[in-house]
Amino acid sequence: MGFSTEQIHAGVEPDPVTGAILTPIHQSTTYVQESVDRYLEKGYSYSRSANPTVRALEHKLAKLERGADCCNFSTGMAAINATMVALLNAGDHAVVSDVAYGGTYRLCTKVFSRFGVEFTFADTANPDAVAKSIKKNTRLILTETPANPTMKLSDIAAISKIASEHRIPHAVDNTFLTPYYQRPLELGADLSIHSTTKYLDGHNATVGGAVVSATDDLDQQIRFVQNATGNIMSPMVAWLTLQGCKTLSVRMDAQSASAMRIARMLDDHPKVAQVCYPGLESFSQHALAKRQASGFGAMLWFEVKGGVAAGKRLMDALELWSLAENLGSVESLVTHPVTMTHADVDKAERKRVGITDGLVRLSTGLEDVEDLIADLEQALERV
Length: 383
Ligand SMILES: *Cc1c(COP(=O)(O)O)cnc(C)c1O
Fold this sequence. Notes:
- By secondary structure, the protein is of the alpha/beta class.
- 38% of the residues lie in helices and 15% in strands.
- The protein starts with a helix and ends with a helix.
């Protein structure tokens, strides 16, 4: 069946009691058991361990990512945290993308480093650099592609091959493209991680996370940590995300088509110094973008001539684009990573990975593209 059919129907069926077409919000702490001998017969005991509404979302995401199973979390960071807790012990080493999301970098350097886990932040755009970073005690390779906000890509198939030769699990943060455009497990990765806060919800309504595992064994390891540490998604959040997923392909296609038009407009604009969008022929990894994904997504960044001051004036002059953190929703958002999402990454590290002070990140929403372009043009006139 096609992706759009699956995004609507996978994991859910009409409620057997009432026929309600939408999965009910099972707002219940506990589940009554038939008898001591028939404990867990219906699959549920206590909502930290499993909840039917959350389980419906997990089944849907597992199907869309072509995984064995999925575990949902309270946030994207909780999903990344659980993956690292499940796979790493004190004394282990992990190779992490040098352009990973600022929160991932902070989790590695400020939290896991306290527990004796060692990291190498490698240039994962270059598979050889990943191979060279592997040590005897490497137990995880974590990439993010496209990376937030640099848009740098990692070759999922090439890195998965290196990882499997060393029997190291490869986890891919697939937040930017979603399973509609990119399916890491089909390319050989072991885990696909999401901040469901972004495109899967798509409506700026929730924060949530997901880890889809290629095997039941990996899923069991993650699920064990989840139950042990108590980091779960709530039924209400799962329900909203279930509804968001049903329009994922339509939103992604429309938002990506708009992003392409906006990227071309900015590329031609005399006040713009640089535009970075994987769909542009000038994008350095354009061939890889076409090879490993079926769409380019709706995220891009650009730099205005005149540096940081001009960039700030531009962001303040925008009216339809909201100045806010988050991405992937129907509302178009503009972000200044250096002062907002990546403020915790130190200046030298930011410079090294290409997060310049003047970088303006756009998350293209679902408004009429003519309105989005007109707003950018009037703001550019005023810088
Ligand atoms: C937002 C984001 C995260 C963190 O997700 P939260 O839901 O905010 O915790 C992780 N990875 C990427 C690529 C993100 O964009």
